[in-house]
Design brief:
This protein is an alpha+beta fold. The protein contains 12 helices and 25 strands. Among the domains are: about 35-210, no CATH class; about 425-565, no CATH class. The longest helix has about 40 residues, at about 1-40. About 25% of the residues are buried.
Length: about 575
């Protein structure tokens, strides 16, 4: 009896095990068949249908080189797909063939949450994407055009509303690895030389459409090691027209790592030799919307920056300044603005104090500045920014100035400069010419335009009002005082180093007596000698306007004057 009962029990257990095994095998087979069907839908010829669907949704051509379905992850209830060699075309009106190219895109979702109408994505990873940023003839970027195009597709709004009401989208991790953005000049199909953002890495964790998530971003500028930008903060909630963002952004720029051709195009000769240790750092706390406007307080730090046309003619610039940082339309037509207020920076051995504003909008750069400069070596300043070297010495004070500019490159900005200022130079000398000896020579040869006498004109003070415009530095109210000479007048120095001054030299002794004798005393205010200084900074020419003077009389008086002077 007992043996019979055991046999019945074992037979029943075996039947249940067989049934369970059949169920397991059936489920496995069903999962396998479903996985193979999914793979066939995603891979092979069906991948073209996937590309066509993406193309319809975006409104631009989309191609996929290969697509795969991971069966192992399918059995773990986290199906994963991978798309390789993806290319998204540019909207019409742009020269570059593709807006985005990516080596690989992989995504992994969870099956069980789908039963509760929750789309839970374990991960989305994009490897080596390359975005080509381009602007058309109307000034609209290809990214902005694509965003507008996809939103305007028939049924786009209804599909988004159905998705929003039908279920929640949750993404555990979204990553972009080793991305790149290349910028293309308007009207060209080639990237701007050396202008790119590379090694882009983005990490988004715990993404959900209706709440904020953690965002981290980093990238290299100019493909260099020390020039980088980093962002860490909170992003979201997300909508089709809004992307709130708050966090801290840090941009470190090593001017020496900017390619020389780009430095020259954007800054002219100002950053020809910025120094190996030079660094510019901007740290900002930002808040706003990525699609519209981000802004916040910031700090600008300049470290060991050298301004100048070559390594032998530089002016050190360093210090920290409070800044307000603003960025607009980062996803379409990005523009940036820096506002500096009540700043103090070290300039050579002296300092600069004042306010400044800089705007970068597409290829256009504009700005303004006003403030003061004190205790700066004027030769160090002039020789670092111009070809004139060793022409004037002394300590420069600009008690006040205002300046504004706008242009697409360094040349346009230079030619657009406009402003005013009031300057004074103390305890210096004009090393370009000996003005007193030049006057003597000019009076001795009144009919000739003579090269200025080599030498120097020392002075106690030199003051003038300055007006900048039309590629010239215009000076009026010039007053130069020295023990032997006082000069007043006005004139200009061109950006091309051309000069033209109308001056009056006031002096005592023989030259003053000569001016009175030939009838110029009443014109020049008693002993004043009108003269013109023309030519270039390198080769000035002096001509006293003394009219017809008897050469012998002039010679006798001049000899008498200079003999007295030498005693």
């Amino acid at each position: 009896m007992a043996l019979g009962a055991d046999a019945v029990y074992h037979n029943a257990m075996r039947r249940w095990l067989i049934r369970l095994l059949v169920v397991v095998v059936s489920l496995f087979g069903l999962m396998l068949v479903a996985g193979l069907v999914a793979r066939s839908v995603i891979s092979g010829p069906s991948q073209h249908g996937l590309a066509a669907s993406l193309s319809y949704s975006l409104g631009v051509p989309v191609t996929v080189g290969a697509s795969n379905f991971d069966l192992v992850q399918w059995f773990l209830l986290r199906p994963a797909i991978a798309l390789e060699d993806i290319a998204i075309g540019n909207p019409p009106g742009f020269r570059s063939p593709h807006l985005l190219e990516a080596k690989k895109l992989s995504a992994q979702v969870s099956l069980v949450p789908l039963l509760h109408k929750i789309i839970e994505v374990h991960s989305i990873i994009i490897d080596q994407p390359r975005i080509t940023a381009e602007t058309n003839e109307q000034g609209t970027s290809n990214i902005e055009t694509l965003l507008r195009k996809s939103k305007s597709r028939p049924g786009a709004s209804s599909r988004s509303s159905e998705t929003a009401s039908g279920g929640n989208l949750v993404v555990d991790q979204f990553s972009v690895n080793s991305g790149e953005i290349a910028f293309v000049e308007p009207g060209s199909s080639h990237g701007v030389e050396h202008l790119s953002i590379s090694d882009i890495n983005i990490s988004v964790r715990d993404f959900s459409r209706d709440q904020s998530c953690r965002l981290e971003f980093s990238a290299k500028l100019f493909g260099s090691a020390r020039s980088r930008v980093r962002l860490g903060g909170q992003a979201g909630p997300f909508t089709s027209d809004s992307l709130p963002l708050s966090g801290m952004v840090t941009m470190a720029l090593a001017p020496d790592e900017i390619p020389a051709s780009l430095r020259h195009a954007e800054f002219g000769d100002l950053l020809a030799a910025p120094g190996k240790k030079a660094k510019v750092t901007l740290t900002a706390t930002i808040r706003g919307d990525v699609y519209q406007r981000l802004s916040g307080p910031a700090k600008l730090v300049l470290t060991d920056v050298l301004i100048g046309k070559d390594a032998k003619h530089v002016l050190p610039l360093a210090g920290a300044a409070p800044v307000t940082f603003t960025a607009t339309k980062l996803m379409s037509a990005p523009s940036f603005q820096l506002n500096i207020a009540n700043a103090l920076l070290r300039l050579g051995k002296g300092q600069w104090t004042g306010d400044a504003e800089l705007q970068l909008r597409g290829s256009m750069t504009s700005g303004r500045s006003h403030g003061a400069v004190s205790n700066v070596d004027i030769n160090e300043l002039v020789s670092s920014a111009t070809s004139a070297d060793g022409k004037i010495y002394g300590v420069l004070e600009i008690s006040s100035y205002s300046l504004q500019f706008a242009g697409k490159n360094a040349g346009e900005i230079r030619n657009s400069l406009q402003g005013t200022g009031k300057l004074a130079v103390a305890q210096g000398r004009l090393a370009a010419l000996d003005l007193l000896s030049s006057i003597q020579e000019g009076i001795a040869h009144p009919q000739e335009l003579l090269e200025g006498k080599k030498g120097a004109t020392p002075f106690t003070t030199l003051a003038a009002n300055m007006n900048i415009g039309q590629s010239k530095l215009n000076f009026d109210g010039i007053q130069l005082d020295s023990p032997a000479l006082r000069v007043t007048g006005n004139g200009f120095i061109g950006f091309d180093q051309a000069i033209n001054f109308e001056l009056t030299a006031h002096t005592a002794g023989g030259i003053g007596q000569l001016a009175t004798r030939v009838g110029m005393g009443s014109q020049a205010g008693g002993g004043g000698i009108p003269l013109t200084v023309t030519g270039t900074v390198e080769s000035p020419r002096v001509r006293p306007r003394v009219g017809k003077i008897v050469t012998s009389v002039a010679g006798d008086l001049l000899d008498s004057f200079f003999k007295k002077k030498s005693k």
